[in-house]
């Protein structure tokens, strides 16, 4: 079968939006290494410094649900330029910030820019790439952003120890400029515009949902579950979600088209996508933590050990996408999920005694499976939708991804913290036990994903 060529400008548009998303993720993952330095410099606690990540995720989470309406109302190139400039402003503020308050302001502005740009790449792929190449390019898109979590800890460790934390932001400025120039040249408008109404109440309810959930889950390891800071915040978040669902039913054009969940297949795919992100973010916390606290290595060594797996996941994205284009979704998804379930089982069985070498190879197994699967699940979720529903479906998937960002790390860190609290110590043994309990939980999630995808992923029709 002859495959249509992808225009060079479409490649440029995908890479421009992908680079900006890459920069957003790499700041998030590399800044985690600098937390001890920031705590000393600004005289702040662990809970306060963690808002460097939480407030960034919060800004993205509130903006991403608006992406379908933004796409309908404004030209893609204009949205990209605004996102790029906002991100640059945020990076400059953070690079020069004399106080922690200004550092957080920069993170909010970066989050708004990332929240605008993140769905653009996948919208461009679904709208402008020939149908026979969509799977491959979705894999490439996930590869661009997927490299960042792998590179981030190593990049952060090297920069913080050799140049200082401000250089994490300064080094990215020329990369963001390249993204801006590529986008200005390559992004073209293919869809007609129509002014979509931005419902203020819906935006408020989205904000309440994410503020409650992110605040509640981030406090899981610091406060009792039955407390205002945890259960109270989560209940407030769930009330926000309930009000959003109620409000959406009364609108002709809601900011999130929740009626898509009437399809069992869409619901199963979205839930699976969400749970994969939870598992991946759980891994990203558990393994570096284990390497440092149990195996007694430095943060830089931990970053180097998990680095090959990140590259494996990134490389398998386009390969999985190409298989999807040739054979459909079912076979590559189930093969990838088999590797994921197997690796989670191995980690849950041996997590009391894991050497760095075992972690390296089993994590490669997981990330290879995840890289194969993730982009295909996204594509298989969006492919059946019509051209008006695709931006809405994309907004829902990206919103689920941000929510998983709040949940994945918080749940696994809380399980480890509970294990440490039960033994009244932060010893290597209590950390290893907490890691094992976390992996039992993540294994259950992986099995649920396999069952859902086995049931709801169809064979390719010839």
From TrEMBL:
Subcellular location: Cell membrane
Gene3D superfamilies for the chain: MFS general substrate transporter like domains, Multidrug resistance protein D
Spans traversing the lipid bilayer: 7-28, 48-67, 79-98, 104-125, 137-159, 165-186, 198-217, 223-246, 266-287, 299-321, 333-352, 358-382, 403-422, 437-456
Bilayer topology annotation: Multi-pass membrane protein
Keywords: Membrane, Transmembrane, Transmembrane helix, Transport
Domain Major facilitator superfamily (MFS) profile: 9-461
Superkingdom of the source species: Bacteria
Protein name (record): EmrB/QacA subfamily drug resistance transporter
């Amino acid at each position: 079968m002859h495959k249509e060529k992808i225009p060079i400008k479409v490649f440029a548009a995908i890479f421009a939006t992908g680079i900006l998303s890459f920069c957003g993720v790499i700041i998030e993952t590399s800044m985690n290494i600098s937390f001890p330095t920031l705590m000393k410099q600004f005289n702040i606690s662990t809970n306060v410094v963690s808002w460097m990540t939480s407030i960034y995720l919060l800004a993205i989470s509130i903006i991403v649900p608006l992406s379908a309406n933004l796409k309908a109302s404004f030209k893609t190139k204009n949205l990209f330029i605004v996102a790029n400039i906002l991100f640059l402003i945020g990076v400059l503020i953070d690079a020069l910030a004399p106080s922690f308050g200004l550092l957080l302001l920069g993170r909010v502005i970066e989050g708004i820019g990332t929240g605008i740009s993140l769905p653009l790449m996948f919208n461009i792929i679904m709208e402008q790439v020939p149908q026979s190449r969509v799977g491959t390019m979705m894999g490439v898109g996930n590869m661009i952003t997927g490299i960042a979590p792998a590179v981030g800890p190593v990049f952060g460790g090297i920069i913080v120890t050799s140049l200082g934390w401000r250089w994490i932001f300064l080094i990215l400025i020329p990369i963001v400029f390249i993204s801006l120039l590529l986008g200005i040249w390559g992004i073209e408008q293919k869809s007609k515009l129509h002014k979509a109404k931005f419902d203020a109440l819906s935006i408020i309810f989205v904000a309440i949902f994410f503020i409650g959930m992110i605040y509640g889950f981030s406090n899981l390891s610091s406060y009792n579950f039955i407390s205002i800071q945890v259960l109270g915040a989560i209940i407030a978040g769930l009330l926000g979600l309930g009000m959003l669902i109620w409000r959406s039913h009364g609108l002709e054009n809601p900011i999130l088209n929740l009626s898509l969940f009437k399809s069992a297949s869409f619901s199963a795919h979205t839930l699976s996508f969400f749970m994969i992100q939870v598992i991946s973010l759980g891994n990203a916390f558990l393994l570096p933590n284990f390497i440092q606290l149990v195996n007694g290595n430095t943060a830089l060594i931990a970053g180097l050990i998990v680095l090959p797996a990140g590259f494996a996941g990134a490389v398998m994205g386009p390969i999985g996408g190409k298989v999807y284009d040739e054979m459909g979704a079912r076979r590559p998804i189930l093969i990838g999920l088999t590797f994921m379930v197997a690796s989670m089982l191995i980690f849950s069985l041996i997590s009391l005694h894991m050497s760095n070498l075992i972690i390296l190879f089993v994590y490669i197994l997981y990330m290879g499976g995840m890289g194969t699967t993730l982009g295909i699940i996204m594509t298989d979720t969006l492919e059946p939708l019509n051209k008006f529903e695709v931006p809405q479906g994309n907004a829902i998937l990206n919103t689920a991804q941000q929510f998983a960002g709040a949940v994945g790390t918080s749940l696994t860190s809380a399980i480890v913290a509970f294990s440490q609290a039960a033994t009244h110590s932060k010893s290597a043994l209590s950390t290893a036990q907490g890691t094992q309990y976390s992996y039992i939980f993540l294994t259950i999630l992986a099995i649920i994903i396999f069952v859902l995808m086995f049931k709801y992923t169809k064979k390719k029709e010839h």
